[in-house]
């Protein structure tokens, strides 16, 4: 035996064994059929070197060369089968038939001429390598450079294997031929490993893009929180909710949502990390919206471990606003029912007062009392009519009306409260202002909201019966961009609004009133009504001193 052959075979055996381990470990991780086929392919290829080395040590064992050729044929069959599996195809049956014919040939010529004995298995292996190379070259989804290098390496390996039985007979060329064959085999195997990693990375990137697209398509904010309460990932909905996530993606959740330097209490994320179960809390963001925050634990690698927490934010603002509107509608129906019930006895009181007055002498205390009873009953009837107008869910078209009349009707409804709390009302409403085209009851609702807020601010600042509780109401005709508008101002010297809260004052559910004193919907609803009428509602204030609310509405001729 040539002195170079044994070290070369041992080196090839070691290299083949490494490839077996690599392909086996990749199959254990990815469970791809072509990886299993190639692992068995290289295992049989390594066994060929084991049998060759054993045959060199025991020349009298005639079955060892035969077993080696069978292993080479089986390895070749698995090599091309792995190539077809790589492209998710099935190996044609002709390959199995060809392997059987070659095995029969080897059996027939064992113990005879070595060239005839070796040639079928080498040619079959060469054809398998060339076919595998062609299969890889046809894969357009593989990176072009890697595809061409690996495919042509397989083809060159196959051409070399076809010529090696002849080259091995030339002593000067045989060592270099063996070395070249070993290089081609390991280079081809390394190429398919790199292609596998490339395809795996491309697939992972594609799956990542798909998952990002799907998660960003979800309008609700989603956030992944790490054990240190830092934000690891967020979808587009979360970045719309908190734009700071674009510039500070790894910030703490409590810094982003609450602008705090320490964790919130309660904290659903911490609860989920501690318990391994879902948790929930309510969150009001800076823009005045209300959110239901639910946390869902992400299992870790170890049993019972929580590697992260997914936070799901559900906007509760529309639900709360719809609920509030439903309550207002129910209240309106109740008010209408009560007003109708009051209206009948009030009309009776008015009629009886008139009858009583007519039956008494024209002068005297009794007739004056009857007149006062009738007057107060008329005031009650006016309040009832305004209540009915306010409660009515009117879908009529807008109509031209005098804004002063709507405002005076609203004042009638709150006059008793203003008088009881000692509020001095200064009214400057010119009667010659042009009409505005509006839904009267909707604008009346706006005025009632504004008057109610002013009364609350005055009562918060001044004690009962204290002087200085002034409420000023005025209206004037102005012109903006050539369009006449009626401008109404409601000015009070109450608690005022902090400068930091002015921009949020008309956000839904934002309120500076104590808990239970306000819903945060009055100004929001009023702002929406005025905007729908083509008008503008603005607020000016100095905290602790005064507030001025200005309502601009276009004249009906506009």
UniProtKB/TrEMBL annotation:
EC number of the protein: 2.7.13.3
PROSITE patterns: HIS_KIN (PS50109)
GO molecular function list: ATP binding; phosphorelay sensor kinase activity
Transmembrane regions listed in the UniProt entry: 6-28, 35-58, 70-87, 94-111, 117-137, 173-195
SUPFAM superfamilies (UniProt xref): ATPase domain of HSP90 chaperone/DNA topoisomerase II/histidine kinase (SSF55874), Homodimeric domain of signal transducing histidine kinase (SSF47384)
Ranges of residues in domain Histidine kinase: 337-557
Domain of life: Bacteria
Keyword match Phosphoprotein: yes
Cited Gene3D superfamilies: 1.10.287.130, Histidine kinase-like ATPase, C-terminal domain (3.30.565.10), PAS domain (3.30.450.20)
InterPro entries attached to this UniProt entry: HATPase_C_sf (IPR036890), HATPase_dom (IPR003594), His_kinase_dom (IPR005467), HisK_dim/P_dom (IPR003661), HisK_dim/P_sf (IPR036097), Sig_transdc_His_kin-like_C (IPR004358)
Stated name of the protein: histidine kinase
Coiled coil: none
Organism from which the protein derives: Geoalkalibacter ferrihydriticus
Reaction equation(s) it catalyzes: ATP + protein L-histidine = ADP + protein N-phospho-L-histidine
UniProt keyword annotation of Transcription regulation present: no
């Amino acid at each position: 035996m040539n002195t170079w052959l044994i070290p070369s075979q041992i080196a090839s055996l070691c290299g083949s064994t490494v490839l077996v381990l690599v392909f086996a470990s990749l199959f254990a991780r990815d469970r791809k059929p072509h990886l299993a086929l190639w692992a068995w392919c290289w295992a049989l290829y390594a066994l060929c070197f084991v049998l060759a080395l054993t045959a060199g040590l025991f020349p009298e064992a005639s079955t060892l060369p035969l077993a080696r050729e069978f292993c080479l044929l089986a390895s070749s069959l698995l090599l091309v089968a792995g190539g077809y599996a790589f492209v998710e195809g099935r190996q044609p049956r002709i390959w199995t038939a060809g392997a059987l014919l070659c095995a029969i040939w080897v059996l027939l010529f064992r113990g005879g001429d070595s060239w005839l004995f070796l040639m079928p298995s080498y040619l079959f292996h060469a054809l398998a390598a060339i076919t595998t190379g062609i299969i890889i070259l046809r894969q357009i989804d593989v990176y072009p450079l890697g595809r061409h290098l690996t495919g042509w390496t397989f083809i060159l390996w196959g051409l070399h294997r076809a010529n090696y039985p002849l080259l091995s007979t030339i002593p000067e060329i045989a060592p270099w031929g063996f070395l070249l064959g070993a290089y081609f085999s390991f280079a081809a195997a390394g190429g398919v490993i790199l292609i596998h990693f490339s395809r795996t990375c491309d697939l992972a990137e594609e799956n990542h893009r798909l998952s990002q697209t799907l998660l960003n398509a979800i309008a609700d904010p989603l956030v992944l929180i790490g054990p240190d309460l830092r934000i690891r990932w967020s979808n587009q909905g979360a970045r719309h909710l908190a734009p700071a996530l674009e510039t500070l993606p790894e910030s703490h959740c409590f810094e982003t949502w609450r602008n705090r330097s320490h964790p919130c209490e309660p904290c659903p994320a911490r609860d989920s990390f501690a318990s391994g179960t879902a948790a929930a809390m309510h969150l009001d963001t800076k823009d005045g919206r209300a959110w239901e925050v639910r946390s869902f634990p992400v299992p870790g690698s170890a049993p019972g471990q929580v590697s992260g927490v997914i936070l799901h934010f559900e906007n509760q603002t529309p639900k709360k606003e719809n609920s509030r509107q439903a309550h207002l509608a129910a209240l309106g129906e109740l008010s209408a029912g009560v007003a109708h019930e009051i209206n009948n006895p009030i009309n009776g009181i008015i009629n009886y007062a008139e009858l009583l007055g007519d039956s008494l002498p024209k002068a005297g205390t009794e007739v004056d009392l009857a007149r006062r009873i009738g007057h107060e009953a008329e005031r009650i009837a006016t309040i009832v009519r305004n209540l009915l107008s306010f409660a009515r869910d009117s879908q009529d078209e807008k109509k031209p009306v005098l804004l002063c009349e709507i405002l005076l009707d609203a004042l009638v409804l709150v006059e008793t409260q203003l008088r009881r709390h000692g509020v001095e009302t200064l009214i400057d409403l010119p009667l010659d202002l042009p009409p505005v085209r509006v839904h009267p009851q909707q604008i009346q609702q706006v005025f009632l909201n504004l008057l109610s807020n002013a009364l609350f601010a005055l009562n918060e600042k001044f004690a009962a019966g204290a002087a200085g509780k002034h409420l000023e109401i005025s209206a004037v005709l102005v012109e903006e961009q050539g369009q006449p508008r009626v401008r109404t101002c409601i000015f009070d010297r109450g608690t005022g609004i902090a400068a930091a809260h002015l921009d949020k004052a008309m956000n839904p559910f934002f309120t500076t009133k104590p808990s239970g004193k306000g819903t945060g919907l009055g100004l929001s609803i009023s702002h929406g009504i005025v905007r729908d009428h083509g008008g503008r509602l603005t607020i000016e204030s100095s905290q602790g001193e005064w507030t001025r609310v200005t309502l601009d509405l276009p004249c009906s001729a506009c």
